[in-house]
Design a protein that fits this description.
Domain Replication protein A C-terminal: 159-238
Distance between the termini: 27 Å
Strand order of the largest sheet: 4-5-6-8-7
Number of domains: 2
Family: Belongs to the replication factor A protein 2 family.
CATH class of the largest domain: Mainly Beta
CATH superfamily of the largest domain: Nucleic acid-binding proteins
Number of helices: 6
Region (Disordered): 148-170
Subcellular location: Nucleus
Protein name: Replication protein A C-terminal domain-containing protein
Shape: elongated
Oligomer: single chain
Order of helices and strands: EHEEEEEEEHHHEHHEE
CATH architecture of the largest domain: Beta Barrel
Mean pLDDT: 79
Amino acid sequence: MLLVVGAGGFNATSAGGAGSENKAEGVLPLVIQQVLDSSEGGISMFGNQYAMITLVAIVRNVDYSSTKVTYQLEDHTGRIDAHFWLEEDGAVNTPSIVPHSYARVVGSVRNQGGTKAIMIFKIDQVSSPNDVTTHLLEVLHSRYKSEENSKRKVESSIDSNSNATSNGGFMETDSVGASLGLNGKQLAVYKAIKSHVSDIGISRKELQAKFNHINASEMQNITDFMTQEGMIYTTVDADHFLCVDA
């Protein structure tokens, strides 16, 4: 299966440098060529900055040293080295990955002497070919979801300016909150979850950072309420959320 992902909004920032103001967060599914093409400023797509990336690739070679394990990864778009740094007990913590098989890598991108490399946070053996196909679909979905969210932000900004002007400077009441039965804080959290682009969803920690005026107990009540109402659901654990109709 050959999949080539167009650059599109990859590494693009919105007008006026707004993209550079976004705090890096979340995990973005990519293919290797996208990592190699990324800017030194970090991984971004349509103005959204990401802290880590995930990719699925063949492990072509494994090189062991006293401080790290280097995996040479390859997919249909290119090759890249990924480093897993060892703790003091060394081999005990070395992931068991079979060469010439597929692996899923989660990590951050670093520029070492002009060459991109991945600092591995987690690496797992991929046992099913379906995982490879699923990852490629996630790459496409994330790209188009990012583009859609970017367009929504622009349209929302235009609509907000239009409403402010037509109402003498007073904004119209958001009908979305009323239709969902959400108050101001609940609606703000709901929108943050819905607009977040990641295959594992937004974390409770990221939500708390976005809304530091909402204490942890109140945030727990808000997410519990929306989960019980079927508006959001948890993903990899009880502290990561995706919107049902995202």
